[in-house]
Design goal:
Farnesyl Diphosphate Synthase, two-stranded antiparallel ribbon, globular, homodimer, mainly alpha, 13 helices, 73% helix, 299 residues
């Protein structure tokens, strides 16, 4: 099976699973549920849950034990998108080619849909741990509690990163600060995906470290590629105006390294990511292709 | 020791403990930390953590095992206050006689401080469970995981309640809907406090039920009293303009029962709350006084 087919297969698993958590009841809070569903099912790439599952599958044949955590992380990701798009942060009108949540519903509903999704992620995790301990799967429960702990800390970093990105927009910041922002805003959650996948698969500490490093690098590559696309991408494909970041006074990797320098940097960190996978040979083929996909994507 | 002294003692314990979670570092995200601290330490009554601890102490001599959960619930309460005050929800300029978070800082910072507090509650809980399982306190860990699960579901209800309260403002709603909103918006979290206190103290199921019912009733009393104060309270003491709810077209217990009817209802549910405590005799003295305090407060 080629990479695109594999990716689609993973995406279908995630989408089917997410559907199970959508509340369809005709209750008074129907519109809030619709608002949550609208963003959660808007057709994102599902990169984060796929990264959890693909890492987990380096060590296991199935993905049952990691699926709830993969779902929870997609909920966190979507909470952050809804709040980032709000007028007081990025004030975006469109996402995935559709009106943003507050444009489709209203400001108050989008705020509370985001809050609800952040908390729903923890409902999913608590149900999973509660089930596990009731059935006395001691070792599995230990790993799930560790994953839960990592999850809370990475989400904290993401919120801090979002704060810094908003607060420092248009200001003169150092390259170190640029990196610090992205490590928190985008990097922490991607790193968490690989780390959780390995923890839940009961992988040795050495592997958890190695795969965290892999995710660190693809997180960085992801951000550099974003900046390159913003500078020279096809706005019809990316859905964002070309040169938009420059106009907004955003500090980007392109602003620091120049376009060619940023591309070299992108290649370098992608290679460093792939380097971490060598020890796993053929089993890591999908994760290798995923790093290349992040480097080569056009949106 | 009289009730007021006891209350003060509990408040001091909560405030001292909360202080430990305030990040004072001179890091780039300093202002976000300040914004969190501003709301968390603004001097609330600490009713929720006190309810956790007082319920726990019906069964135990100390409060060590329940304190992190008491702190986490105060974080959730403060997250909800910050977001409720935002322009898109209640648009409040003052709380506890001080500018609301978004007035003191800005809209984006208040949004993210609320997000951060919601997530920090789960950091505190996950650290506690992680510590517990690493040290192999099996039974205690089971109770903590159950408390975590109850915590996520009550917070979900609170967000739904907030949504309904916002969405239905100024609309004609039934008495049943009024009750449904308050059961979710205010009741769920208060009920959680007593329930968690009992669960964490390893109380028998019968007691968990009884104390949940007690908390249910004081939650209802709390809301009825709020509505009465809004109608006839001293605005200099309550900090809110008299008759404000009526002007906003809010459906209140006073609107349904009339002022005298609401006062009778308040007495009735307070007595029902106290009824639940009979079996515990003298040990429940503080919880009994707490119910009376909610009934008799003037702000």
């Amino acid at each position: 099976m080629d990479f695109k087919e594999n990716l689609k297969l993973y995406q279908d698993i995630v989408n089917n699973e997410l559907e199970k958590y959508i509340i369809k009841a005709d209750c008074p809070e129907k519109i809030l549920n619709n608002s949550v569903e609208y963003s959660l099912m808007a057709g994102g790439k599902r990169l984060r849950p796929i990264l959890v599952m693909a890492t987990y599958r380096l060590f296991k044949e199935d993905y049952a034990e990691c699926l709830p955590f993969a779902i929870a992380i997609e909920m966190i990701h979507n909470f952050s998108l809804i709040h980032d798009d709000l007028p007081e942060i990025d004030n975006d009108d469109f996402r995935h080619g559709k009106p943003t949540n507050h444009k489709k519903f209203n400001h108050a509903t989008a705020l509370l849909a985001g809050d609800s999704l952040l908390n729903q992620a923890y409902i999913v995790i608590s149900e999973e741990i509660f089930y596990s301990i009731k059935n006395e799967f001691k070792d599995i429960t230990d790993n799930k509690i560790r994953a839960f702990n990592e999850f809370t800390k990475a989400t904290d970093k993401m919120i801090l990163g979002e704060y810094l990105d908003t607060e420092l927009e248009g200001k003169d910041i150092s390259k170190e600060m640029l990196q610090y922002i992205h490590e928190n805003k985008t990097g922490a959650l991607l790193k968490l995906c690989a780390k959780m996948g390995a923890i839940l698969a009961n992988a040795p500490e050495k592997d958890i470290e190695r795969l965290s490093k892999y995710a660190d690098k693809i997180g960085l590559a992801f951000q550099i590629k974003d900046d390159i696309l913003s500078e020279e991408g096809n706005s019809e494909i990316t859905g964002k105006p070309v040169g938009n970041d420059k106009e907004l006074g955003k500090v980007t990797y392109v602003a620091y390294y120049g376009l060619e320098g940023a591309k070299q940097e992108l290649n370098r960190v992608t290679n460093e990511a792939i380097e971490q996978l060598k020890i796993y040979g053929e089993r890591a083929e999908f994760l290798r292709q995923l790093a290349e996909y992040i480097r080569d994507r056009n949106k």
